[in-house]
Amino acid sequence: MKKIIFLISFLGLSLHAQNNVTSKNIFNFNCQVAEENVIKTLSYLTSDELEGRDSGSEGIELATLYLENILKENGIKPYFKTYRDTLSNFDKTSYNVVGYIEGNDKELKNEFVIIGAHYDHIGKIAAVNGDDIGNGANDNATGTTAVTEVAKYFAKFKNNKRSVLFVFFSAEEKGLLGSKHLAAKLKEQKMDLYFMFNFEMIGVPMKDKGMDFYLTGFGKSNMATTMNEYAGEKLVGYLPIETKYMLFRASDNYPFFTEFNVPAQTVSTFDFENFQFYHQPDDEFELMDTKHMTKVISKTILVLEKMINAPKKEIKLNEK
Q1: Running DSSP on this structure, what letter comes out for residue 121?
Q2: Contact call for residues 71 and 83 (beta carbons, < 8 A)
Q3: For the chain, how far is it from start to end, CA to CA, in angstroms?
């Protein structure tokens, strides 16, 4: 998050998620993300070869190419002329990576959902024990990896009634510049945005919190309540410290909230107690719990599927 002190795989993919999008029954765990795919993406994005993925660097260019290739291999089209959305508000050439799956419902496809995470980090930093690369595993190669798995699921089954953008933001660490640029651009194009869902720092589970994620801006919408109803369990909840540090304003959800005035929120498992290497060289792949990541990504995919396919806009801002 921006400037805040803050191989055993599952056996393949199971049967396609049932399309009862309004069901509030017990969570049906029938989407299995392969842990080996999580490991593959996460380990590459955190490798020293990428030199900490600083925006505008040669290292992040490698990450950009990697993410473009994932979208291309899975038949996900670019939303613009290419996958690259060039930032207009940063002095170095930097790109958001934007993939697009059109909705399959004649009317609902005109409504959009954005699922995103920032893929940049802070590059070379002060060395610790000779290591000067801020690999940014938890922050935010984990969230980036989650978006790749969600994108692959919807590309495989093509079951989204609404249109979906899968966005990998650059220059988050420079002040949310990638998301600010894209939010303003899509607003100018008069996009009908239903909600924005952002992944941030999900590599280490919380302990004794009674939920898988917490949701920033918890009381601003009914997103958490709706997600938990869809899941049939407490998938997301409220963490008081997120209010203390104003985390709702600290990640790439926020520009979409300010531009569109729709639910735009972030899920995270970084609780300021479970990970001590924020913006340090020790934020490495080896410290990430890929089994935890695989489990929560799988759960979230099925909830997102119901959110995206609801016959009406069920997720709404709460009245002030």
Answers
A1: B
A2: yes
A3: 27
SS3 at position 264: strand
Asked whether the beta carbons of 118 and 139 are under 8 A apart, the reply is no
Residue type present at position 20: N
Q: Which secondary-structure segment (H or E) carries 168?
A: strand 163-169
Cβ(145)–Cβ(39) below 8 Å: no
DSSP tag of 269 = -
- Cβ–Cβ under 8 Å, residues 42 and 117: no
Beta strands in 51-140, from DSSP E residues, in sequence order: 77-78, 84-86, 95-101, 112-118, 123-128, 131-134
> Residue 241 to residues 132, 169, 177, 217: CA-CA distances in angstroms?
30, 25, 25, 11
Q: What is the pLDDT of residues 52-81, one digit of tens each?
A: 999 999 999 999 999 999 999 999 999 999
pLDDT band at 7; cut points 50, 70, 90? very low
Q: What is the pTM assigned to this prediction?
A: 0.91
**d(Cα 55, Cα 183) in Å, to the nearest integer?**
18
Q: 91 near 165, Cβ under 8 Å?
A: no
Under 8 Å between Cβ of 119 and 259: no
Mean of pLDDT values over 112-141: 96
Euclidean distance between CA atoms 87 and 71, whole angstroms: 20
Do residues 234 and 228 lie in contact, with contact meaning Cβ atoms separated by under 8 Å? yes
DSSP conformational letter for 173? T
